[in-house]
Amino acid sequence: MRKRCALLFALLLFVSVPAYADPGSVPNGPWLKDAQKMKLKRLHDYEELVKALHRLERVTDGNVQLEVIGQSNENRDIYMAKVGNGPKKMMFVTQQHGDEVMTTEAALNMLNTLGTSNHPAIRNMREEVSLYVVVRANPDGSERYWRYNYDPDAAPEYGSEGKGYDINRYHAPDLTPDQNPVPEAAAIRKAYETYQPHWVIDFHHQGTYKNEDGRMITTSVYWPSHPDVQDPVRRISKQASMVIYDTLSHYGFAEVSQYPGGNYQGIARNAYGLLGSGSVLVEFRGGIGQKSGGKIIRTAYASMFSMVESVSEDTISEYDPDQAEETIPTRGAPVDGGE
């Protein structure tokens, strides 16, 4: 584990995020206030994201390959970036919710590292793993900076009437892509069926929480909780959760907890577990504007990188899944000013 953490620490030094002076207080705010506007100028809008992805494809000499897996309701292409050609297949999904932006920025940094580095450990990852990254699953919602996709005709069970659907409620195994009213969820499902990844990791943001010691929760993880998920699938999902917990526990900028998720089968975490893949939800602190954005991007990058590395080296199998519920603490109380 020390070798893995040393490499990750070195790579974190080169993550391209703005320099912030994070306050030293506990619970280490600040967070976005209701009356405070979020500035998005330094983040990639849709056109900038497309340019960045195509640039990655060019500068990595084909190590990063792009595929359009579908279109949004406003006909924006939904991109999946592939890196590596190994037998161990993984799918990452970022920004199903349009206002949860930092994970997409982390994914761009990770793709740059995996695509451009000639470090022997990175080359080994490309040889051992095939990684498929759905980069910004919700481009329409991102442009509006809201949770849902964009569908003015929507009268959804999960979402907002006249605005759109909550994409992360429409992955149920019995909902085929042709039947799915949510094109973004249908595109993810089609890509899943095409590539049959062994792991699906879904990255989100949550509100602001603290643990019993008053430290800010930066990350929460959870595995499939639907009762019909097969035990071997649940076990490898818990192992993946332990990889992220163990990795982030080595860094002073991260505090990890269990996410208190539900059993609804339409949530990606449960749906892809029911379909037979190891599946993990990863939630990072959100609702913070740009004030702590650099730290969140680094945390997300570390989570993503640790999963690829542990799968490539098979160190993921060293974790005891039975320890996950005992080792990873439950999430604490919301902080005043958070969600």
TrEMBL record:
Q: Per the entry, which co-factors are needed?
A: Zn(2+)
Peptidase M14 domain residues are 42-308
User: What keywords sit in the KW lines?
Assistant: Hydrolase, Metal-binding, Metalloprotease, Protease, Signal, Zinc
Residue ranges of the region described as Disordered: 318-339
What is one cellular component GO term in this UniProt entry? extracellular space
Cite a single GO MF annotation. zinc ion binding
- A GO BP annotation: proteolysis
Which Gene3D superfamilies does this one have?
A: Zn peptidases
InterPro entries, alphabetized = CARBOXYPEPT_ZN_1, Peptidase_M14
Q: Which residues form the signal peptide?
A: 1-21
- The organism's superkingdom is given as Bacteria
Active site location? 283 (proton donor/acceptor)
PANTHER family (UniProt xref): PROTEASE FAMILY M14 CARBOXYPEPTIDASE A,B, SLL0236 PROTEIN
Family designation? Belongs to the peptidase M14 family.
Q: What is this protein called?
A: Peptidase M14 domain-containing protein
UniProt source species: Paludifilum halophilum
